Amino acid sequence: MIQGTAWKYGDSINTDVIFPGRYTYARMEPEEMAKHAMEDLDGSFANTVKTGDVIVAGRNFGCGSSREQAVTCLKAAGVGAVVAKSFARIYFRNAINSGLLALEIPQAVDAIQQGDPVGIDLKNGVLVHNDIEYRFPPLPPAVREILDDGGLIPHLKKKLVKEA
After folding, report:
1. Domain extent listing, the chain
2. In angstroms, what CA-CA distances link 36 with 31, 49, 56, 72, 94?
């Protein structure tokens, strides 16, 4: 179960504002990246976000360049999930590979406002907001395993250990 506060943003939030482009080639650990999360869009985000908080956004979240840091910084900041009307294809795949839950639930996005409490029950496929349940299709078992293991690399390492 993921429970947190909603951070609401609009359409076409691109990777340059999720993780500012000026830091792209700087060598940083994930914890340092987290300090710059959403910096160019919302200066209060990195200092205020709490573990389990949920980013809620419109269409085409994560558009722009294929920047893995745009996922890493959110995960390192403690974001429990990103719920959007839609995702840029590469961002969605990077999120799964990095172990960050990305869900498309358009009707919930319309209802949720900045600062609202949000709960996500992944096992039962339900997002709860103001006592209203928004259902989403269950994630495929392979995707659940990757998320449960913390991302694709930890998942593959775990599988290799089991097979050895």
Report:
1. 2-138
2. 9, 12, 18, 11, 18
CA pair distance 105, 87, nearest whole angstrom: 11
Residue range 13-30: average pLDDT?
Answer: 93
> What is the C-alpha to C-alpha distance for residues 66 and 81, in angstroms, rounded to an integer?
19
The HSE-up count of residue 154 (CA atoms within 13 Å, CB side) is: 12
User: How many Å separate Cα 133 from the centre of its chain?
Assistant: 20
Q: How many residues does this entry show for the chain?
A: 164
Strands 2-8 and 117-121, sheet pairing: antiparallel
Is residue 107's pLDDT more than 80? yes
Share of the chain above pLDDT 90, in %: 88
pTM for the whole structure: 0.94
For the segment 137-147, what is each residue's pLDDT rounded down to a tens digit? 988 999 999 99
Which numeric CATH code is attached to 2-138?
Answer: 3.20.19.10
